[in-house]
Design goal:
The complex is a heterodimer of chains A (about 180) and B (about 140). Chain A has about 180 residues and is mainly alpha-helical. Chain A is about 70% helix and about 5% strand. Chain A has a two-stranded antiparallel sheet. Chain A is rod-shaped and about 145 Å long. Chain B has one domain. In chain B, about 65% of the residues lie in helices and about 0% in strands. The model of chain B has no long low-confidence stretch (mean pLDDT about 90). Classes of the chains: A mainly alpha (about 180), B mainly alpha (about 140). At the A-B interface, helix 3 and helix 4 of A face helix 3, helix 4 and helix 5 of B.
Chain lengths: ~180, ~140
């Protein structure tokens, strides 16, 4: 059984039926996998067909593109002028465009200049997001510790004030007798 | 001694103690400065508010009295100064701290001036000691 990518897996919860979610996730992943294989096979077929068409066009008298031309010499009024298919001719262009369309999802995820940079940006963004989450966590911890420190200091200060207050009667007496 | 750990019942009560502590703190700082002033520079206006001696004791110049007072109450003065600074600069001051610092300030001011603590009120400090500070 093919493993689903992490992002495609359903997140199970305590209340939901965990096996059912996992099973539906696996089925979806299998469908995606089959579609991808079919798409790539189609693209490969089209590219091979393009090569065959080009080869036949250049090596044989078949699959040529012909134009009618007005005769400048001779008896035939409209002689035909034929040549092999070029890359800009309709049939070959259609094959290439078809292959390109079928391969577009792969290319967008891999090696088209600019789009590859986009994928890298997504990775960097995810990394940055993780850093921010970690930073927020550290700040929360530090803030919690700071609050605790403030609470401890305030409690110590209050205790000192109370302690000093308790000494006042004695100190007043001491001040009067110390002159 | 009152229950210093008791929280204030209202914001007005806390504000009242806050204002009182600021007045007391200013008076204490002024007395601290006065204690450093040489006896020869004391004016009659400055000498008059102080008792001439402790009860049953020998005559004592206020400068000597304040020096003894300063030595005995250094810790209290530092605490009052700390609480006052935190109040002014929006620091955290708990109710017990404010209540205790205000109460201590009244105690040590009454000792310095030779009166009962119950006499020491913000208005009394301003009228009785105001003149003293102006002359400094």
């Amino acid at each position: 059984m093919a493993h689903a990518p992490r992002g495609d897996q359903a997140t199970p919860t305590a209340d939901e039926g965990q096996p059912t979610d996992l099973a539906s996730g696996s089925q979806t992943a299998e469908k995606v996998s089959r579609l991808t294989k079919a798409r790539r096979a189609g693209a490969t077929t089209l590219l091979l067909g393009w090569l065959v068409v080009i080869w036949v066009s250049f090596q044989t008298p078949y699959l040529h593109t012909c134009d009618d031309q007005i005769a400048r010499v001779g008896d035939v009024a409209l002689p035909r002028s034929c040549r092999p298919l070029s890359i800009t001719d309709g049939p070959t262009l259609a094959l290439l465009v078809g292959a390109g369309v079928l391969l577009f999802p792969d290319l967008s995820a891999l090696e088209i200049p600019g789009v590859l940079r986009l994928e890298r940006q997504v990775k960097e963004q995810a990394k940055r997001q993780e850093e921010i989450v970690a930073m927020v966590h550290r700040l929360e911890v530090a803030q919690h510790q700071e609050v605790n420190v403030y609470a401890d200091v305030a409690a110590a200060d209050a205790a000192k004030v109370v302690e000093l207050a308790a000494q006042q009667e004695e100190k007043r007496h001491l001040f009067g007798s110390d002159a | 001694m009152p229950d210093l750990a008791r929280p204030y019942s209202s914001e007005a009560e806390r504000a009242s103690d806050r204002e009182a502590l600021l007045v007391y703190s200013y008076a204490i700082e002024s007395l601290t400065n006065l204690a450093e002033q040489p006896r020869s520079q004391w004016t009659q206006e400055q000498v008059r508010p102080f008792p001439s001696s402790v009860e049953g004791g020998p005559p004592e110049h206020p400068e000597q009295r304040l020096r003894r007072w300063l030595v005995l109450y250094t810790e209290e003065i530092n605490v009052i100064r700390d609480v006052r600074n935190r109040l002014v600069h929006r620091g955290t001051v708990t109710d017990p701290e404010l209540r205790g610092a205000t109460w201590i300030a009244r105690q040590i001011l009454s000792t310095a001036m030779g009166v009962l603590p119950s006499e020491v009120e913000p208005r009394w400090v301003q009228t009785r000691l105001g003149r003293l500070f102006v002359d400094m």
